[in-house]
Amino acid sequence: MSAYDELMAFQRQTEALGQIAGRLGWDQETMMPEGAAGQRAEEFAAMESVLHARKTHPQIGEWLAKIDASTLDPVSAANVRHIARSFERSQRIPPKLAEAIAKLSSSAQRIWADAREREDVAAFLPALEEMIALKRDEASALAQGGDAYDALLDDYEPDTSGEDVAATFAAMRPRLVALRDKVMGADQPPELKFEFDEQKQMRLARSLAKTFGYDMQKGRLDKAVHPFSSGSGDDVRITTRTALTDPFNSIYSTIHETGHATYEQNIASEHLLTPLGGGVSLGVHESQSRIYENQLGRSRAFTGWLFGQMKDAFGDFGVANEDVFFRTVNRLNKGYIRTESDEVQYNLHIMLRFDLERDVIAGKLEASDLEEAWNSRFEADFGYAVDKPSNGLLQDVHWSCGLWGYFPTYALGNVYAGCLYEALRVARPNLDSELAVGNVSGATEWLKDAVQIHGGLYRPTELIERASGLVPSEGPLLGYLERKFG
């Protein structure tokens, strides 16, 4: 057996163990009994200890040294690239630190959820303070004298930097603010005044997931506090949430997570349990969920069909016709929650978090400063005050579970989706007529072939450029938003 074959056999076991760890996380957020939180934290720590030991095993370095890169085909070369990168980064992190972060990530999520329910920031601060200390240590270990925030960002979006992201955001902000102010000053449709049975919402959610290509034979849909997708290959699970008077919360959370899930389900089967068997970056992953949710799911054509599905499910819910429904779906709201934000304001939420994250990792802000910093920045950016912690600092799960450096990928995903949608419109000239009858298969098949099937084969920006023919930039996204809302 060659060095490459031995390396890949070892890696398949590591990938399988990583999937098991992910399943523990899915269970924690959906079905785990509350009393199991302490034990689950110990289980996460044990799994992370095993995974870290495998990722840093000296034999990996020996195998890599024996492999002649010039003899590798593109798939093999990409596998080696991913493994070498993981090996180098993992070696920089002390095992005890990796284990401590995993253990705290598990317990802190439950602390965050309880604090959020009670609107009690003080109850969350000790765990947040401890997490910040651990993530600063991790960033320092990874950066090795370089930029600490970039070292964390590189986990989620390789080949970019905080400065790159900041430049993109600086270009986006003025046009987004101008568009928001223009649309908010115009007449907006009234909010829904109806109670939508939550069991019917879940039935509609499952139907929509299938409409967008989600394979229920290799997945399932459950409820969670914060919707997410988990897994890859033949076991990919999604969650959504329901609100009695807001069916769009469930509908668009489901479509969004279906975008993530179908990406994982559609990766070429030969990449299963290899480094290429998952999405290549969080930004590319987010491009799939956002294009499903927004450019497809919130389009005039698709919402016309969705209006009929809603009437079939709930009867007359107080919206006169398809045009009013389209405007209602795309209504700009004065709101606090990122996941419930309209397309125009969504990226402004990410910019807020990005700036706070960078300041925290740089030591300019501490855990005890974050609520005031968040509230001040929110009021400056949106023009009104945060009314309660669950609408402010406590709204997102990410910081509690150690996902520092993650938030910029949401906005980068929107940027990538803008490029992909421009290419999709050219490739599918009859897209609107297809969406108008609830047929999204033409769009999703194009995305499968252009993006999803490749998994981690290409680098993130290389993949988007190959798929769209465009060097990724904010221009297509901003043009799309201005045409739709302006």
Top keywords for this entry?
486 residues, Neurolysin, domain 3, 2 domains, 20 helices, 3 strands
Unreliable sequence segments: none
Tell me which oligomeric state these chains represent.
single chain
- Percent strand equals under 5%
How would you sum up the major sheet? 3 strands, mixed
Query: Would you report the number of β strands?
Result: 3
Number of domains: 2
- N- to C-terminal distance: 61 Å
- The 3D shape can be described as globular
* Spatial arrangement of strands, main beta sheet: 1-3-2
Secondary structure layout:
Layout: H1 3-30, H2 37-55, H3 58-66, H4 74-92, H5 95-118, H6 121-143, H7 148-156, H8 162-184, H9 198-211, E1 221-223, E2 229-232, E3 235-240, H10 247-266, H11 282-296, H12 300-314, H13 322-329, H14 343-361, H15 370-382, H16 408-427, H17 431-435, H18 441-450, H19 460-468, H20 475-485
Parallel strand pairs: 1-3
Antiparallel strand pairs: 2-3
Helix pairs in contact: 1-2, 1-3, 2-5, 5-6, 6-7, 8-14, 8-20, 9-10, 10-11, 11-16, 12-13, 14-15, 14-16, 16-19, 16-20
Could you walk me through the main structural features you see in this protein, from its secondary elements to its overall organization?
The structure is a single chain. With 486 residues, the chain is mainly alpha-helical. The protein has 2 domains: 3-146, no CATH class; 162-485, Orthogonal Bundle (Neurolysin, domain 3), CATH 1.10.1370.30. The protein contains 20 helices and 3 strands. It has helices at 3-30, 37-55, 58-66, 74-92, 95-118, 121-143, 148-156, 162-184, 198-211, 247-266, 282-296, 300-314, 322-329, 343-361, 370-382, 408-427, 431-435, 441-450, 460-468, 475-485, and strands at residues 221-223, 229-232, 235-240. The chain has a 3-stranded mixed sheet with strand order 1-3-2. The longest helix is centred in the first third of the chain and has 28 residues, at 3-30. The chain is globular, with a radius of gyration of 22 Å.
